[in-house]
Design a protein that fits this description.
Elements (H helix, E strand, L loop, with lengths): L1 H45 L3 H29 L5 H23 L4 H7 L1 H10 L7 H6 L3 H12 L6 H16 L11 H19 L2 H6 L1 H7 L6 H24 L4 H29 L2 H19 L2 H7 L4 H25 L1 H23 L4 H13 L2
Helix pairs in contact: 1-2, 1-4, 1-5, 1-16, 2-3, 2-15, 2-16, 3-12, 3-15, 9-15, 9-16, 9-17, 9-18, 11-14, 12-14, 13-14, 13-17, 16-17
Length: 389
């Protein structure tokens, strides 16, 4: 239950992220997120009982839920098109790096000290936000024209000629404002339904492949498999994520004009690897082979990091209803993290077989639906993603 409380907070954060981001701006939403996370980590550090621990976990989750929406959107709005996918994947790399550092620190410090380390990135973010411009797209949308031009120059340099880009922004904003106000039901129109299925489907398969259950309880999984100490396995788990995610980021940067093709191949390879990892881990419990469990989990996390970890967020940042997609993601995260221990008590082999099954379905989903989405439909896809925002 304690592990899943964070995801409950994140679901609420995701559900309100669109409203918060549009009301307070991208930087304002990030400040609010950081404040919730700081409150959460302090509550965990000073807790003397379960109530404050749970509240801290919930507040941190709420902040993370907003972060998971606003950061990819902010990157997509300020980055040049040629590197947008790569920068969004870089965001995933930073998340993975932070997760790996937390895993490593957790092997040498107490949980209270570990909670304090969670304050560091929040404080660094709050300081960093002072020196970066607001999203020009948001400033133009709310009619703050002077700040809009200042933000553009802040991104391109003081002496840069931003008149052409400023005109394009204004035309785009005026076009969007002239359109009828979009409703949630609009996303289910026939021309957008395929895009919605891809965006939401990838998030569902990302989570129900078991990543949050395996990630939250990796130490317990190694011990259950028969290892006398989980430290070595946990350290290797933490270290392997970063270099593999870097490979995924490079692939996204190189995708260029063929994003669907590259992302489809990456996800197919990634899902095949997670299937193999889950199969080996489940088999290790059946054969009582601890080393096989470590190998399976490492194959799983390496495969997840190269594609399934980042690609759904790249698609979400490109514009079907960002808040809806993020909410679906965190709903899946809650379901997996909440049920993981119950499933492991029932059958470790059965648990990883279920996750392997979802990975197999992911392969079919990508091969049949995502791969057949031609490049000419990619622009429609982006429009559908932007529609509800």
């Amino acid at each position: 239950m304690f592990g899943s409380i964070l995801t409950i907070g994140a679901m609420l954060g995701a559900a309100t992220s669109g409203l918060i981001t549009d009301t307070f701006g991208r930087k304002g939403a990030m400040r609010m997120s950081a404040s919730f996370c700081i409150t959460g980590w302090l509550a965990v550090y000073f807790s003397m009982g379960a109530l404050l621990l749970d509240m801290g976990r919930f507040f941190s989750g709420y902040g993370i839920g907003i972060f998971s929406y606003v950061v990819p959107v902010f990157i997509a709005e300020i980055a040049p098109k040629s590197i947008r996918g790569g920068l969004t994947t870089l965001n995933q790399l930073m998340i993975v790096s932070g997760s790996s550092v937390a895993f490593l620190l957790g092997t040498v410090v107490t949980w209270r000290t570990l909670a304090l380390t969670g304050l560091v990135p929040c404080i660094v973010l709050l300081i960093g936000l002072v020196f970066i411009p607001e999203s020009p797209r948001w400033l133009a949308k709310v009619g703050r024209e002077k700040e809009f031009e200042v933000a553009l120059r802040g991104l391109h340099g003081k002496d840069a000629d931003v008149s052409k880009e400023a005109t394009e922004f204004q035309i785009n904003i005026e076009t969007l404002q002239s359109l009828p106000k979009a409703k949630m039901s609009d996303l289910f129109q026939s021309k957008y339904i395929r895009s919605l299925i891809i965006g939401v489907g990838l998030m569902v398969f990302q989570q129900f492949g078991g990543i949050n259950g395996i990630g939250f309880y990796v130490s317990e999984t190694f011990v259950s498999a028969g290892l006398s100490s989980s430290k070595i396995g946990t350290i290797v788990y933490a270290c392997i994520q970063v270099p593999i995610t870097i490979v995924g980021a490079v692939l996204m940067v190189k995708s260029g004009r063929r994003p669907v093709l590259v992302m489809s191949v990456v996800v197919l390879v990634s899902a095949s690897g997670t299937f193999l990892g889950c199969f080996l881990t489940g088999t290790s419990f059946f054969l009582k082979a601890p080393v096989l469990a470590v190998g399976g989990v490492l194959i799983y996390v390496a495969s997840f990091s190269i594609g399934m970890g980042a690609v759904p967020w790249v698609i979400m940042s490109e514009g079907v209803a960002g808040s809806l997609v993020v909410l679906v993601n965190w709903l899946g995260a809650w379901a997996v993290s909440y049920t993981f221990n119950f499933l492991m008590s029932w059958s470790p082999t059965g648990t990883f077989s279920i996750y392997a099954g979802f990975s197999a379905i992911t392969i079919l989903f990508v091969a049949k639906i995502v791969s057949e989405t031609r490049e000419k439909h990619w622009k429609k896809f982006k429009h559908a993603l932007i529609l509800k925002e």
